[in-house]
Amino acid sequence: MLSHETIWSALDALAERHQLTPSGLARRAGLDPTSFNKSKRQGPDGRMRWPSTESIAKVLEATGSSIDQFLAFLGPEPVHTPQPATTSEVTYPPRASGIPLLGFAQAGAGGFFDDGGFPAGQGWDVVDFPAAPTSGAVYALEVQGDSMLPLYRDGDRLIVEPGAQVRRGDRVVVKTREGEVMAKVLLRQSAKSIELNSLNPAHPNRTFEMTEVEWIARIIWASQ
After folding, report:
1. How many domains does the chain have?
2. For residue 53, is it within any domain?
3. pLDDT tens figures, 162-182
4. Distance (Å, rounded) from C-alpha 85 to C-alpha 218?
């Protein structure tokens, strides 16, 4: 199952493959050397801290790894070859069962989600994902168009977890009661309203009354 622990374990495994400590991996990627330290994986209040997609992208570029190779570390046990090993010499476990996939253009239509923002009805495709989650726990939305540039491009897939707690600074998918679906950054949420920052500076920030919001779900991963 995709979780806080498995994401960090995958980063640790990638560091080990390249004979690096987590600090060494962060340094090679041009990040603060303490970014991946175990002490940084939880906040002072005990909340879990997740590595950002930008940080992981920098790590993949710095190590010459592909996203598929990183995702393979989320599986039960990636098969290692003796060090040093080249990319072509490493065998990875088969992908696990798929998760539901829907395009953003379809997501605004009725019948695809229940009241909590979980998949419902027909019309969903399936996308392979290496860590099989509990059925219905996560799903993927495929970006369509350029409204989320420069962070997400056309064809990128956002892994969404409706049941995850959201807090300020999280990237989220929001669906309004009028059927609009958007990916934004959560700026502020109160009992009465929600403020969202647009990923694309060409698009305005948005503010909604909570009565206008059908559901909000956190983006926990982006497959680019």
Report:
1. 2
2. yes
3. 878 888 999 999 999 998 999
4. 36
Question: Domain check: are 111 and 204 in the same one?
Answer: yes
Provide the residue type at 57 as one letter.
Answer: A
Structure tokens at 125: 């495709």
Q: Is residue 94 part of a domain?
A: no
194 within a domain of the structure (yes/no): yes
Spatial contact of 108 and 84, defined as CB atoms under 8 Å apart: no
Model pLDDT, residue 186 = 94
With vertex at residue 205, the alpha carbon angle to CA 201 and CA 209, rounded to the nearest 5 degrees, is: 165
Q: Nearest 5 degrees, angle CA 113-CA 168-CA 210?
A: 50
d(CA 143, CA 149): 10
Alpha helices in 88-182 (DSSP H): 104-107
Q: What is the DSSP string of 114-173?
A: -TTS-B-SS--EEE--SS-PSTTS-EEEE--SSTTTTTS-TT-EEEEETTS---TT-EEE
Q: What are the DSSP E strand ranges found in 86-128?
A: 99-103, 125-127
Closest to 164 in 3D by CA, of 102, 104, 217: 217
- What one-character DSSP code corresponds to residue 91? B
d(CA 120, CA 111): 7
